[in-house]
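Researcher: Please translate sequence to structure tokens.
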Amino acid sequence: MLGAHLPRPLYAAVALAVSAGLAPAEVRTGEQIYRKQCASCHGSNGEGAKAFPRPLIGDKPLPALTKLIAKTMPEDDPGSLPAAEADAVSKYVFDSFYSKEAQARNPAPRVELSRLTVRQYRNAVADILATFRGPAPRETRQGLRGEYFDSRGFQQNKRVIDRVDPEVNFNFGTRGPEGKTGEHEFALRWEGSLVAPETGDYEFIVRTDHAARLWVNDPVRPLIDAWVKSGSDLDHGGSIFLLAGRPYTIRLEFSKADQGVKKEKKGPASPAQVSLLWKRPRCTAEVIPARHLIPVRSPEVFISSTPFPADDRSLGWERGSAVSKAWDAATTDAALEAAAYMASHLDQITGLRAAKDPGPASGNPASINLDGEKGPKIATDERARKARELAERFVERAFRRPLTPELKRTYIDRQFELAKDPEVAVKRVVVLALKSPRFLYKEGGTATDGYATAERLAFALWDSLPDRELLDAAAAGKLSNRDEVAKQATRMLGDYRARAKLREFLLTWLRVDPAPDLAKDPKKFPNFDPAIATDMRTSLELFLDDVVWSDPSDFRQLLLSDEVYLNGRLAVFYGIAKPPAKWFGIPMGGDEPFRKVKLDPGQRAGVLTHPYLMAGFAYTGASSPIHRGVFLARGVLGRTLRPPQEAFTPLPEDLHPTLTTRERVSLQTKGENCQACHGMINPLGFTLEHFDAVVRFREKDNGKPVDSSGTYLTRSGDAVTFHGARDLAEFLAKTDEVQAAFADRLFHHLAQQPVQAYGFGALEKLRGQFAANGFNIRKLAVDIAVTAALPTEKPKAGGRSSEPRTERNGAKRSAAE
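Model: Translation complete:
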């Protein structure tokens, strides 16, 4: 939206008219300037074009818009534009595109037909194959099931302990699991599932001085096999790519057996330890915490390893708008990969023949079915029939609806006629289905049947396909009713995939996804290291989860809370506790778990002062009011800022040794050209100057008292003054600007469409519902998902319509067509 400035072509156009030296009678009107100089970049009716895709709309009043133009144009000589020309340009833009009245008169953007994004493709294929493996477990308990055996093997008659351990991090010393001294032999096994919080490469580490092996998402091949111990290394690692929001089966086996010593022999036993760690994407190694573990096993998840070209994010959210040769080739490779997997697992999936897997009791191969449990073999003469049934279910899941007789003939019958071997036929079906536009493209907004509504709802909340319950509701005709759709959305929000998508949105909204580089000057901050940075990120994630999944799910608490999650290491770093003090009554040792801590409400204010966030918006040795101000203006207030005309580096401290950070920033950005944006950026960023580069609270900067005062000119033209982070947070939490901006960003993340495409006033309606629901984030997500899922009205023939419309083939049409 047009906020703090007008786009550069509009400035340039007006400047061109002025520099041409035209007499007052010859000066072109605002419309003439726009059509001659600006339409090619912004569209003939301000709808946006390739160079500047955002439409020219906003909510500044006309006097404020005129004042801004008069003050900041032309770019090379701000303030020199004659008042009459500034009036003409601003009035044309305001009346034609910018104002709410103009928006009501003009056609709304269209709901664009789009292909699956890379994330959606991988999730969809994983969920199609999950159809044949059974549902993922739903479990509220945390940790892994631990079994302890009084022998070096896993004989059930030797099991002495069966319990749920919150994490695997044990140092037994010379004692055994039951605390007995002198234990020479014992074995342990932990089983359950791991829920991946984000998509990416994970490195797992088993730290032990004895034999161990680890399985992750594969019951047959260990990810780490250190069963035959050699050398003195304690750490054994392996990496795997995981999709966010899914439970993956995991099993860790550990065995201690002192070489050459019989268990009955008296004498000293060797020490024993075992820990299970991971390195999440862009993080350091840590023991896998209980919140990511559940004590039940999950079916294996198929994860496509085919590399895809990156999706377009030019509008701030992932879009499946471009269809390139690279993308087409990637979908072919991924389809072949999935087909090969299906064929190689065909007998397991159909139940015709069991797989081989290390048996959970003895460590030897045993006959199991798909989910790792022992099962019977089925006669092979049923192979073709079961393969055909499987193929039909596969295509129905891929297309998100039952097959018509014509589709069944094309995708199933014909392929089994051409390929007599069931494996070959299944391969043909899989490739044909996954290359079909019925799989690769999502239903447009005007598709009205229940299956289309189910599809849009599932992709909004899960980035994947509808589940069985949602498809059953579609078949029963229940998804034409808004209340029924909302009921389904509320149910779906409890799924791991929805939780992961909401978390990813919040991290994206806060500009910390992907993870920022938090390197700091070791001379100024000698105790800051990568482990502290990882702890900071964990602290933020715990805080976000706590707010979102609390009963009120109150958006305002993201800005106003005076609580933060700290572990022992962070508590020491920020001076909350110092060894040998006690941390919640426990003597400190440096690895105390995360706990919620209440801080001084006069100093801290939710995410605005969270260590991870503000450390990312800082330099290695100093705070950065500019980075923090840009985040507040763009991310929180939803204002548009143009990029700087040229890159610049901050003024070095040693060139101005007597100045504070605030004074240096003010000195560098005092020019008129800078102030067009920095007049908003700087005062917002200055309110956070009490926090240094590692977000420690300070009263002085460079020996001078910190000045954390700031101002903001609202969209309505009102000037608001702040004194510090708390003042700023209280304003942001109650202003319509922030609430609407948050709803707008969440809509884009879930629906991956412009909110204006769902009707004039759609955003304001969502903001009103948001307020009426006590600013409940989860209810806002449901309202957005329902809005995106229900069919939109088709364009009226022969005339304009302000109702939402669907654009085919991802192509935009101008409002003049």
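Researcher: Any highlights?
Model: The mean pLDDT is 84.
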